Amino acid sequence: MTSGELKRAKREVRRRVLAARDAIDPADRARAAVAVADRVLALPEIVGATTVLAFSSFGSELSTLPLIDALVGRGVVVGLPVIVDGDLEGRSWRPGEPTSETWFGAQEPVGGDVIDPSAIDVIVTPAVAVDPAGRRVGYGGGFYDRFLPRTRADAFRVAVVLPEQLVREELPAGAFDLRVHAIVTPDEVIRCAP
Question: How many helices and strands in the chain, by DSSP H and E?
Answer without folding.
Answer: 5, 12
